[in-house]
Amino acid sequence: MITYNQGVTNYLAMHPNNKNIGPYLFKQLRKANKELAPYVLETDRGIQTIDFTNPKAVLELNRAILLSDYSLNWYEIPEGYLCPAIPGRVDYLHYLNDFIGKEDAHGLDIGTGANFVYPLLAGSVFNWKMKGVDIDAKAIRNANTILEKNTHLKGFLTATYQQDRANIFTGAILPGEHYDFTMCNPPFYSSEKDAFKATKEKSKGLKLKEVERNFAGQSNELWCNGGEALFIKRMVKESVNFKSQVGWFTTLVSKSEHLPKIKKQLEKLNAEHRTVDMSQGNKKSRFLAWRFKE
User: Fold this and answer.
1) What are the residue ranges spanned by the domains of the chain?
2) Tell me: the pLDDT tens digits for 60-97?
3) Average pLDDT estimate for 139-153
4) Strands 157-161 and 106-110, how do they pair?
5) Distance set, CA 178 to CA 173, 217, 234, 246 (Å)
6) Alpha-carbon distance 171 to 240, whole Å?
7) Are 109 and 118 in contact (CB under 8 A)?
8) Taking the CA atoms of the chain, what radius of gyration do you get in angstroms?
């Protein structure tokens, strides 16, 4: 069987409640988003797919999924910004829902991006109240445009510009605010060079033609000094100051080898922590959750 990464079937192993399990239903998706049609291809086995090395095709596919399966009326991302893979993003939320176990949850998405995807999915699937914050003013303007075009979500979703670029939670969590959880998809790479190197290696491993990045993305979305490990360590250190305002802090951790040092840091800070493993086909992922003991 051809895997999702080769562009034919969707993730083969996902959270059982994820409605995007299985092959993409292109007939339904093309109906929801007519802009997808020119990018739909057919393999020599008669299976419909798209060219996953084409950023425009990837955008139109994920736009179609949001319009078809998640009750959106309109969705657009500025050119050059990160285009999220919806099935994987909603998996984080389903596992988080199992972990939190609260119907009327209130969450904070750190680095929500121009795509604003976690709040949109959380509002659509779980009716959670969500605030998304980002240090990119243009990204937040786009997130608010998405909300303006989807008025049914405005009552419980907000997008806020975070002016304090030097911190993660400071300026994002305001005095008097309380959240059941925070979530984050941190920058993976330590530099632009590392990002391009990873894409090249992935393309080679999947026997695809070499591409720059099929998902686009601004620098602050993809890399930061020290990469993912240092970003999460900064997040952990700063979270101590907001322990009375947050039930659980959570973040995706793309590389399992980062976990031991992060957990050691949490233990030094007297924090309870748990790792929730997730799986999307051959891809293994996880999120780390922590809270501070009284």
Assistant:
1) 80-292
2) 999 999 999 999 999 999 988 988 899 999 999 999 99
3) 96
4) unpaired
5) 8, 30, 21, 6
6) 15
7) yes
8) 19
With beta carbons less than 8 A apart as the criterion, state whether 111 and 231 touch: no
Partners of 40 in beta bridges: 50
CATH hierarchy code of domain 80-292 = 3.40.50.150
Q: Does residue 53 register a pLDDT over 70? A: yes
Residue 247 has pLDDT above 60, yes or no: yes
- Give percent of the chain with pLDDT exceeding 70: 82
Report the distance separating Cα 197 and Cα 131, nearest Å: 33
If one compares 136 and 200, the residue with the highest pLDDT of the two is 136
Give residue 206's pLDDT.
Answer: 43
106-132: pLDDT as tens digits: 999 999 999 999 999 999 999 999 999
Assign 3-class secondary structure to the chain: CCCHHHCCCCCCCCCCCCCCCCCCCHHHHHHHCHHHHHHEEECCCCCEEECCCCHHHHHHHHHHHHHHHCCCCCCCCCCCCCCCCHHHHHHHHHHHHHHHCCCCCEEEEECCCCCCHHHHHHHHHHCCEEEEEECCHHHHHHHHHHHHHCHHHCCCEEEEECCCCCCCCECCECCCCCEEEEEECCCCECCHHHHHHHHHHHHHHCCCCCCCCCCCCCHHHHECCCHHHHHHHHHHHHHHHHCCCEEEEEEECCCHHHHHHHHHHHHHCCEEEEEEEEEECCEEEEEEEEEECC
Residue 227: pLDDT over 70: yes
